Amino acid sequence: MVILSTAIIKVKDADNSYQFARAFLDSGSQPSFITVADIADFVLQKLTVSLPSHHIDVSRWRIPRHLPLADPQFNISQGIDIIIGAELFFDLLENKQFSLAVGYPLLQKTILGYIVCGRVAEPITEQTSVQSRHVCTEDLLDSQLKRFWEVDNFDDGKAYTSNEQACEDHFNENISRGSDGRYIVRLPLRQEMLTMIGDSYTPALRRFLSMEKTFGNDEDLHLEYSNFIEEYDRLGHKEVISHASCSPQFFLPHHAIHRPESTTTKIRVVFDGSSRGLTQLSLNDVLFSGLTV
């Protein structure tokens, strides 16, 4: 059988807390995948079968004790949380490896520790005959993209509900195009429900104060966040309003996610329209949902 490279890594969640995850280092994968997080290209419910396919007895292997293994339990069949593809795989490698012996795998040094990879001479059994493959065909992708973009069986003669008609009218009356070519449309608010949101300022303030505490422990995150807000202002995406305004207001909570490993955007700011006010209604709750096509 062939041992595939695994590593135990720390992943920062939405609350800026670190969680341990088991990663499969796959140089043959173009994108990266993850069950839940932000560094990957795709988020899936399940990534692959457990790796390795069965427990491997390593009691007689002479692995130098001073070598830190990226996955100390590489020989125990366990689930995979993340697949790190070729985009990051080769950035992890370092120029050093050990060969245990003929018929045993290699120990390759990485910035995560030593990964164990390669063929193991074992008698062929029902367990060892199991192999893992990760396949994605162009035909399947083409079919999925076609279904994504096509509108199937749309009936022009369909009778809309009052809410659907209101949402359709709102869209037609409020859509415009900016000087940069982007389409702009006002939020389809259900006016009769706006006053039912209640106090949304307190939850939003609580979220912001929690984020400020995080800034005290992460100067890079604070700097990146400040740069984001300055750019947000420079692009005209925000304006100052009075908290004392009598008109219905919704204070949109947000938090920053730091991605230092990203080669492009180091920070992503997430605005939370599902955050509920003190009456247990959120901004999303007072928007028309529109048509299903």
- As a percent range, the share of strand residues is 15-25%
Strand order of the largest sheet: 2-3-6-4-5
Number of domains: 2
Low-confidence stretches: 38-42, 124-129
The profile of the biggest β sheet is:
5 strands, mixed
Task: Return the structural class.
Answer: alpha+beta
Helix content percent band: 10-25%
End-to-end Cα distance: 49 Å
Number of strands: 13
Continuous helix count: 5
Instruction: Summarize model confidence as the mean pLDDT.
Output: 78
- Give the overall silhouette: elongated
Output the helix-strand order: EEEEEEHEEEHHEEHHEE
Radius of gyration: 26 Å
Description:
- With 293 residues, the chain is α+β, with helices and mostly antiparallel strands.
- It has 2 domains: 2-140, no CATH class; 161-237 and 249-286, no CATH class.
- It is 22% helix and 19% strand.
- The strands form 4 sheets. It has a 5-stranded mixed beta sheet with strand order 2-3-6-4-5. A 4-stranded antiparallel beta sheet has the order 1-9-8-7.
- A hairpin with a 5-residue loop joins strand 2 (6-12) and strand 3 (18-25).
- The model is unreliable at 38-42 and 124-129 (pLDDT under 50).
